[in-house]
Amino acid sequence: MLSVHNPTTRRAFLSVGGLGLAAPGLFANPGSASAKPTTGKSVIFLFMQGGPPQHETFDPKPDLPVEMRTVGGVVPTSIPGVHFGDALPNLAKHAHRLAIVRNFVTGTQHGGLKPIVSEATKGASLGAVYNGVAGAVRPESGLPSSLVLWPKSIDPTTEGPRDRFGRFDTTGPLNASLAPLTPGAGGQLEDSLKLRLDPDRLDDRRGLLAELDRAKFGLDAAGALDALDGQRRQAFEMVLKGVGAAFDVSKEDPKLVARYDTGRWNQPKLWGNKKNAPHYESHTKTVGKLLLLARRLCEAGCGQVTINTEFNWDFHADGNNLDVAAGKKVVVEPFDHAVGAFIEDVEARGLSDKILLVCCGEMGRTPKINKNGGRDHWPNLAPLMLYGGGLTRGQVVGASDRDGAKPVGPPTRPENLLATIFGTLFDYGQLRVMPNLSRDLLGMVTAMEKVPGVV
Asked: Which of 53, 59, 137, 379 is the most exposed place for a label (fewest CB within 10 A)?
């Protein structure tokens, strides 16, 4: 459950949750007050860390020799003549709403976060770039403008942020205060303002609201709010208000919450004694609820949310990882269920033009299946799926060769994806008239204006 610690006895009070509430202009855009450099749309990036296999997801190859062909079968989609791997029946039904990219090349292996942290942004994450343009906190709600969500963000029993293969909140040359908020990250943020949902109490709005009320009452009783100037008092109250509104699910139909739930895939017998068992558990327990939370955050006004359900797409079939057949059950099926529920939810709410969902990892998987039934690292082709943002309508972009090893013709690269994301989030004309926008930031964003997007 969300818990807000009373920070009046801590030196960290004036920077609640690491949001820098003491900083003047926290809620203002870096440029002129009249400029609106953002489009009002949001981007959710569901990062499939570990490298999803193209053959078993969006580019199946059922007619190859047995040592290469898609494991299992295929399923027809709502686009005539287009098939997905058979672990994606829900997404197959919605294929006419998607953009499927079959020529995406990251050129990286583990640690290659180009889709999220690229050379084009000089090492700054998507969330940091968005914060630099939009401001770190949404003035209308008090919510952070961007967040990075991990399993621990909603379930303290699961895994949390780690940087073994790269950080998702890095700011590069930008000010460190522009890092996206990472609930569950620990440190000053966790000490001052804890954002954590127990998955078994998603509908416990009484407890949630009581925590917020107690926090505000405690501050009033201590005279802490009176001691702040008007801007800082407003900032703190807005954070409480915004956090409470976004994390409270009292207005959600319990049936909808249940539709997102992927808990039935949380079966330890499926991964046995694999060393990466905690990753599989984190994914199966949280991927659906993380997408529900991301939708709520974007609907409330957040501009960019990155989700990482931990390192679980690494289908090597060794002592650490599952083979492809087992990986389909443990990773691909709950992914399909969760993203399918998200699409149906967004469509029902009329938000398909407002929210863009991006799904990809740092690489793909080898065309040839190894001796243990797994697929190994493959930087030359990777799955990429987009939904929404007013952009996707059943496109199949590019094609792979017969073996699913490389693109046919020019590839789609991370900079093309970044161009699509920036074009969704930013108004380039307004950006250019923002006098206080840093040269670094302006250059990062406008460099993508002339790069062809994915769709």
From this structure: 379
